Amino acid sequence: MTRRWLPRVSLRALLVGVAFVAVFICVPINRARRQQIAADRVRELGGLAWYDFNFPEGKYEAQDFAPFGESPYPEWLLSITGTDLWHDVVYISLGGIDIPDQDVSFVYDIPSLRKLMLHSTNIPEKTCRNIELQMPGCDVFP
């Protein structure tokens, strides 16, 4: 009877490998969870949060918005994992909504945000500029 050769792995190497895989998996899941909480907060306030697939041209302007844009990922996958794991919120509109100043901190949990519409809100100009400074890829419109 011949014995098959199996690679030997120490317990230490196995634990390091498992830890690496766990970190590799958890970082995007945590980012998606934080984005989902922030997008839910926007909707709770009465605002709109739009995803990257709603702008098929890649231009994040209101006139380029496709309300029935579809994700390239299958619906069954999105229903299991959630939209936020595969797509980024890129456009938030909170226009005309009274928002206490401390409640805009949720936008920092959406690093992919490109446009933040805050017209006709009670958010001070200073806070808008602070958001622009801390999120360089985001255009804030007070």
Structural description of this entry:
The chain starts with 10 loop residues before the first helix and ends with a strand. Helix 4 links the parallel strand 3 and strand 4. It has one domain. It has 142 residues and is α/β, with parallel strands linked by helices. It has a four-stranded mixed β-sheet, with helices on one face. The chain is built from four helices and four strands, in the order αβααββαβ.
Distance between the termini: 78 Å
Nearest-angstrom radius of gyration?
Answer: 21 Å
Order of helices and strands: HEHHEEHE
Strand order of the largest sheet: 1-2-3-4
Largest β sheet strand count, sense and barrel closure? 4 strands, mixed
DSSP strand tally: 4
Mean pLDDT: 90
Quick structural overview:
This protein is an alpha/beta fold and 142 residues long. It has 4 helices and 4 strands; from the N terminus they run H-E-H-H-E-E-H-E.
Main features:
39% helix; alpha/beta; 4-stranded mixed β-sheet; 142 residues; 11% strand; elongated
Helices and strands, with pairings:
Layout: H1 11-45, E1 48-51, H2 75-81, H3 83-86, E2 89-93, E3 115-117, H4 125-134, E4 139-141
Parallel strand pairs: 2-3, 3-4
Antiparallel strand pairs: 1-2
